[in-house]
Amino acid sequence: MSLIRKCLITPAKPSSITLLNLLRASRSIKHLEQVHTHIIQKGYEQDHFIINQFISLCNVFSSDVSYATIVFEHVIQPNVYVWNTLIKGYSKKSSLVDCFVILKQMKRSMNVIPDEFTFPSLVKSCTNVLALREGQIIHGLIVRYGTDSNVFVGSSLIDLYGKCKEIEYARKIFDEIPIKNEVMWTAMIIGYVYVDDLLEARKLFDEMPQRNVASWNVMIRAFVKFGDLCGAKKLFDSMPDKDVVSFTTMIDGYAKAGDMASARFLFDRSSDKDIISWSALMSGYAQNGQPNEAIKTFHEMLSMNVRPDEFIMVSLMCACSQLGRLDLANWVEHYMSQNSFDPNRVHIAAALVDMNAKCGNMERAKMLFEGMPKRDLVSYCSMIQGLSIHGCGSQAVDFFDRMLNEGLVPDDVSLKIILTACSRSELVKEGFRIFNLMTNKYSVKLSPDHYACVVDLLGRSGKLKDAYELIKSMPVEPHAGAWGALLGACKLHCDIELGEEISNRLFELEPQNTGNYVLLSDIYAAANQWLDVALLRQKMSEKGLRKIPGCSWVWNNP
Prior knowledge:
This protein has helices spanning 3-7, 16-25, 29-41, 48-61, 66-73, 80-93, 96-108, 119-128, 132-144, 151-163, 167-176, 182-194, 198-207, 213-225, 229-238, 244-256, 260-269, 275-287, 291-303, 310-323, 326-338, 346-358, 362-371, 377-389, 393-405, 412-424, 428-440, 448-460, 464-472, 480-492, 496-509, 514-526, 530-542. By secondary structure, the protein is mostly helical.
């Protein structure tokens, strides 16, 4: 039964009240089309109130502004409310250029003048794309039409200038408006956070005559942004009322700091969990190398009838990538197919490539990779890393060269990944070619990690002296990773003399790392120098060091 049949009790001509009820009952564009037919047939196309409600619902249900524009163009003399509703739709769903076109048409209209409800959505459109120049044009119109003292207009301008990092302009507007609400105070605080002025943001927060939950949340998020979790927690604990955003902000902060125990504690304390809360917890586990906990959280969420979104699925795929379990990867893909997730969305496609590559299904990974509408640095790195893990170093180099040929500019992460691939496959010539290319052509800033990769590359290939000379000539201070890679190569090639020299360096850098002692002990044992083995173990005992026993992990099926 159509919406009209459900809502019209009698066949009489529908009144404006009946049409408004039909609009309120609408839940889709199809419903609006049915109502639109009656609006036209019964002569309500020029009823500003009904058309205003209709365009407002078009803004909600339609993905663009085409239908709302067609309806609007049939209104002979739209009033300011109809204009404002159309502009609001354009601000949300069209380009900034189109917004200015509509505003220009409104200014040319003889019977309307832009008011305080016209400008906030236009300013927000400028803010969303950080269009400062266009925002200043709107600001000029705001002054011209005398709406600059309005608190909502002022708040939108403060938000614009703050996010465009023109904080002096934002503060000037803030100080000139005599009556301020919580929205304006909060916008000014956000502006200071955007320019990394936490002290001024906190000062303004303390001066607020009244605070709402949003202003508390903004201040907590600021402390989290600057890594001050103690300050964030103190503020969180003093909040009179907390909402789901308050808890999620703290959960995300603890997760990014690697404190998953505190993140989980707060998650369990929260009585109102939304999909963003679950996503913060899951991504925290995945990013902190706790894939089993991420998978456990996913199943816990399903048991509570919470439907995962695409961001949660990306975190789940990240967890699968860390475990390298092909059976789990296949289950995840099946689940996504059954629940209508779009594999062509860029971040989902990249995660699928990464998961399949790291779980060993390189054919599937390649197929997904080739089917991507746009391949970026992340998707290339996933393929290169997957090929590297599974011993296909030459193919990894081919993919890296293809990436460069497509015009993508490598960064420090991609350089580390390809150098690791060359090291694993002992591709010395290719490794040095890429290393020199990155420094000479792409000017990648080299870190100790990059040098450690090259040291490992030389060491695995038996070029121990060259690796040692590279470490000594490094323009940056070599870290334990570089020395450790060379010590591992000394073990591989039974070089006792160099191994002893490198070990002494590592004993100074990492006096509590038993692994370095164990590697040197293995070098002595391989050369049957058992007295040296015994002396080294005695030295460990005197320092209170114990070899950490190995362990095996058994992963459960989902």
